[in-house]
Design brief:
This protein is mainly α and about 250 residues long. The chain is built from seven helices and two strands; from the N terminus they run ββααααααα. The longest helix is centred in the C-terminal third of the chain and has 45 residues.
Length: about 250
């Protein structure tokens, strides 16, 4: 049976559920690994002191560091509404960070490597920002597509360009996340296959496989950093877009 490096991205149906005709509500491996962050949150908050300990343990210390980092991010990018949007940004970061890190474990699955998840998140955020802006500014929201002082004759072209530029925010937000996660997983899969072939060859070739093994371990640590950075960048850009929708930029 042939093996492809892209097999790790295959969505597998674990439990088929078709309640009404073509409506597919099946449980897949992607569904399971998106539920894991929620289950971890439930486990943490039901097994730890909700009020916090005076001397924090390991879990509380990590959570406090993450909490403070995301709180600072939201304050810096949404000065006028950080308290309103912080719970959403914090939950978004934890969700992305957990599934990105778990996806580095062999034989697991990374939902953010799929456009259905990454673009689903980015377009949901884009739609949410639009709803917030329209709710606050009404029809004045659409004035952002026509730069002030521009000639009316150039209006149709400028509106089209501004609209495409505005829509590109949602596309780039999801594309950046999916592309970085996919590239990192492919690199690790290719390098691991190369190391396995060297190790099983025997002799001096097997000894030579120790060098790429050390490189693979280094790349794994690097990918852990990338997983966290991509979650942070996604939340950073989300904060900027939310601030733009509040101030009509």
């Amino acid at each position: 049976m042939s093996y492809s490096f892209f097999d790790q991205f295959e969505i597998l149906r674990l439990f088929a559920i078709h309640p009404f005709g073509n409506l597919d509500l099946s449980i897949t491996n992607s569904t399971v690994f998106m539920l894991i962050p929620f289950l971890l949150f439930v486990f943490y908050f039901t097994t730890n002191n909700k009020d916090g300990n005076i001397v924090p343990g390991r879990y509380q210390s990590v959570l406090e560091i993450v909490y403070g980092t995301i709180q600072e991010l939201v304050k810096n990018n949404i000065p006028d509404g950080h308290a309103r949007f912080f719970p959403f940004i914090f939950s978004l970061f934890m969700f992305l960070a957990i599934i990105n890190l778990i996806g580095l474990v062999p034989y697991t699955f990374t939902p953010t490597s799929h456009g259905a998840v990454s673009f689903g998140l980015s377009f949901s955020i884009f739609i949410g920002c639009t709803i917030i802006a329209v709710g606050k500014f009404g029809l004045d929201y659409f004035s952002m597509f026509m730069p002030a002082g521009a000639p009316m004759a150039m209006g149709p072209f400028l509106i089209l360009i501004e609209f495409i530029s505005h829509l590109a925010k949602a596309i780039s937000l999801g594309l950046r996340l999916a592309a970085n996660i996919t590239a990192g997983h492919l690199l690790l899969a290719i390098l691991s296959s190369f190391i396995w072939q060297m190790m099983t060859a025997g002799g001096l070739i097997a000894v030579g496989g120790l060098f790429p093994l050390a490189i693979a371990l280094f790349i794994t640590v690097l990918e852990m950093g990338v997983a966290l950075i991509q979650a942070y960048v996604f939340c950073l850009l989300t904060s900027i877009y939310l601030n733009d929708s509040v101030h009509l930029h």
